[in-house]
């Protein structure tokens, strides 16, 4: 058996296993009542704070701090 065939079989078995696990998790997974309540609270807080805003690359660069240790103010340091 050549190494290419062994690799191909490995990939096929891995994909089949992945598919079986995905189908199993989708059919058996449910959120608990506490998780559902937490999701609703997070959605309400997000809505109260103006909603979700996904930043583009320009906003990320503008808000990014790349100063290393200089980005941390010395007066905030713990003695």
Shape: flat
Overall mean confidence score, pLDDT = 83
Tally of strands: 0
Question: N-to-C SSE series?
Answer: HHH
Distance between the termini: 65 Å
Number of helices: 3
Alpha-beta classification? mainly alpha
Q: What share of the residues does DSSP label as strand, in percent?
A: under 5%
Low-confidence stretches: none
Helix content: 55-70%
- Radius of gyration (CA) equals 24 Å
> Quick one: biggest sheet?
none
TL;DR of this structure?
With 79 residues, the protein is mostly helical. The protein has helices spanning 3-28, 33-48, 57-63.
Describe this structure in words.
It is a single chain. The protein is mainly α. The chain contains three helices and no strands. The mean pLDDT is 83.
Write the layout of secondary structure elements.
Blueprint lengths: L2 H26 L4 H16 L8 H7 L16
Core attributes:
79 residues; flat
């Amino acid at each position: 058996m050549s190494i290419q065939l062994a690799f191909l079989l490995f990939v096929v078995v891995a994909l089949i296993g992945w598919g079986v696990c995905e189908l199993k998790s989708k059919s058996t997974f449910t959120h608990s009542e506490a998780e559902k309540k937490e999701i609703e609270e997070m959605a309400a807080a997000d809505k109260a704070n103006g909603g979700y805003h996904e930043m583009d690359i320009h906003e990320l660069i503008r808000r990014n701090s790349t100063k290393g240790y200089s980005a941390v103010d010395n007066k905030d340091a713990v003695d």
